[in-house]
Design brief:
90 residues; mainly alpha; 4 helices; 74% helix; flat
């Protein structure tokens, strides 16, 4: 990648690469299964480090933790968009 590329050019390059990757993949769910399993395993280690929860309770805790994480990311994204919209003011 050229060192003088702009953020917009890097974004377009990344978007083109993502489209090309998914064009070669007939089953997105299968293609991302390993990543989801690894994520859930890491979350299980956080919500039940001693392995004392029942499988049902652990699954529920993993789902709640994942939702909390996604909600925090959405909040940060909204805050960043507002800062950009307002000219970078805090």
């Amino acid at each position: 990648m050229p060192a003088d590329s702009t953020p917009a050019e890097r974004s377009l390059r990344a978007r083109a690469a993502a489209h090309a990757r998914w064009a070669r993949c007939p089953n997105r769910t299968e293609a991302t299964a390993a990543a989801r399993a690894a994520r859930d395993s890491r979350i299980e280690d956080r919500v039940d480090p001693d392995g004392v929860m029942s499988p049902q309770d652990r699954a529920r805790a993993v789902e709640n933790y994942r939702r909390a994480h996604m909600t925090r990311m959405a909040l940060r994204s909204a805050q960043a968009r507002r800062r950009r919209r307002d000219g970078g003011a805090a």
